[in-house]
Amino acid sequence: MALRWPRSCWLNRMHEKDHMASSTRRRGPAGTSPEAAPGILTRLKVLRDGLPPTSQRIADYILAHPGDVIHMTVTEVAEATDASEGSVIRVCQQVGGSGFQNLKIALARDLVEPVQFIHEDLQPEDSVASVMEKIFRSNIQALTDTLRVLDVEALQRAVQLILRAERVELYGVGSAAPIAVDAHYRMLRIGIPCAVVVDSHVQAVSASLTGSAVTTITISHSGSTQETLAATRLAREAGARTIVITNYGKSPIQAYAEVVLYTAARETQFRTEAMTSRIAELCVVDTLNACIALATYERSVETIARTFEVLSSKRF
């Protein structure tokens, strides 16, 4: 049975082992809570010997390759350690985290500058002009990288799945929810019957009630968000055709995707809320929508004109 120490018990143990070191950590930088002081790598080392063999193997890999793990998905770590994704997540929980993304953030705190949680390229002394240039360049780079990894055949396949569907459903939570809402609006404007679902409970119900006549589009930057992964799985099991927009690399959600449209945004490793990824996702949505509109040119033009008339009454 895996050894599970409550976070508070672990801190007490560390305090007993080295009172002076613990006191120093508690004083820490201004604004640092006592519970945040022990690093994730230290926790892994302390707990490692009490873990079962598979968990020890995962812990050893993380300890040996912390910089690499920050750049990996849970699926890639599972493959590298010959373990399951569930085993990787259990190790994350055993050291006090809520999941793999939480572990990566904790590793980043140990390994990278705190400012990188705001934006990798920024420094505290940067001027407003410098911040402006770096942010814009980062977004441009995300679009350039996404153009390189977005597969033309996958895009063509996604267009066909949407055109053949009686209805399209779009799923997204958190920072992906606004992208799903935007995609829904754009598809409505060109006459695609669709619905957007951003509540995780409604997603599960709606996905389970789909079927072969429905195509779903799930937007998940990490590909590891439990709610959207569950919705995509339920839709696939119900017979729906499934499209996923996610960041490049292996991730759990791809196991339930018929078509994957990749983005390439670098900030996955350090931030809990993606920034450049949303720019890349919007561009993929724009491209997908434009391809659909061109494939149904006459209908799309007519629908755009009709909806433009409706919307014009709402403008001065």
Topology:
Elements: H1 7-17, H2 19-27, H3 40-47, H4 53-64, H5 66-69, H6 74-80, H7 85-94, H8 100-111, H9 128-149, H10 152-164, E1 167-171, H11 177-189, E2 194-197, H12 200-208, E3 214-219, H13 226-237, E4 241-247, E5 259-263, H14 276-295, H15 297-312
Parallel strand pairs: 1-2, 1-3, 3-4, 4-5
State the major sheet. Answer: 5 strands, parallel
Q: Proportion of β residues?
A: 5-15%
Fraction of helical residues: 55-70%
Overall pLDDT, averaged? 82
Distance between the termini: 68 Å
Q: Could you state the order of secondary-structure elements as H and E?
A: HHHHHHHHHHEHEHEHEEHH
Q: Please, how many domains?
A: 2
> Which architecture of the largest domain per CATH?
3-Layer(aba) Sandwich
Low-confidence stretches: 1-38, 268-272
* Strand segment tally: 5
Radius of gyration: 23 Å
CATH class category label of the largest domain: Alpha Beta
Q: What would the principal axes of the Cα set say about the shape?
A: globular
Output the CATH homologous superfamily of the largest domain: Glucose-6-phosphate isomerase like protein, domain 1
Q: What structural class do helix, strand and pairing data support? A: alpha/beta
